[in-house]
Design brief:
Oligomer: single chain
Distance between the termini: 12 Å
Radius of gyration: 16 Å
Order of helices and strands: EHEHEHEHEHEEEEH
Number of helices: 6
Bound molecules: 5-O-phosphono-beta-D-ribofuranosylamine
Largest sheet: 7 strands, mixed
């Protein structure tokens, strides 16, 4: 069975959507842990509801970079996960983690990459930029995480219309609905490939 670990910083609606799909049996996987850099975030509550172990690892808990990276690696190695899922994780992942899990770290981004990706394009800023550019469509992208931010291989995308008088918040909400339906499907499909490649 596919083993995943999740990292999240915020509300955790993507994390919840994934563990709900696991709970429903749509996604055959086990979620082994949640790592967060924000102990008070919504994702922690969802993990507790499902009895998923939570690890708070951040610049506050581990002020030295080497200790911070070692703490992340300790959790990842302990559970031996097949995939690490970034579900609204707002920090750039250290290269040491990417090297430990090559082509095994997935992220979701709320724009049609390669548009509106990279440093500075996060959260509501993404949707503000889409509206300012008068784009007619937007939508989420699931991609592999590489050293360059938001530039890894694209595994899945969904398109939604940008409506005439959309506010960034309205567009974000429309994109988020699709994120919830896209992410688990990509995890399922890519996870099957990963498991096959292992045997
Ligand atoms: C999502 O919009 C995702 O694309 C981005 O961060 C947001 C996380 O939302 N990476 P949530 O915490 O899953 O609700």
């Amino acid at each position: 069975m596919l083993k995943i670990g999740v990292m999240a910083s915020g509300g955790g609606s993507n994390f919840k959507a994934i563990i709900d799909r696991i709970g429903e049996g749509d996604l055959e996987a086990q979620c082994k842990f949640l790592i967060t850099n924000n102990a008070g975030c919504g994702a922690v509550g969802h993990a507790q509801t499902y009895g998923i172990p939570v690890y708070h690892i951040s610049g506050k808990t581990h002020p030295e970079q080497a200790a911070y990276e070692a703490a992340l690696l300790e959790v990842i190695d302990k559970y031996g996960v097949d995939l690490l899922i970034l579900a609204g994780y707002m920090k750039v992942l250290p290269v040491s983690i990417l090297k430990r899990l090559p082509d095994r770290v997935l992220n979701i981004h709320p724009s049609l990459l390669p548009k509106y990706g990279g440093r500075g394009f996060y959260g509501i800023h993404v949707h503000e930029a889409v509206i300012a550019a008068k784009d007619k469509e937007s939508g989420p992208t699931v991609h592999l995480v590489s050293e360059e931010v938001d530039a890894g291989r694209i595994l899945g995308q969904r398109k939604v219309p940008v409506l005439e008088n959309d506010t960034p918040a309205e567009l974000a909400a429309r994109v988020l609905v699709q994120e919830h339906d896209l992410f688990w499907r990509v995890i399922k499909e890519y996870g099957e490939q990963v498991l096959k490649a292992r045997v």
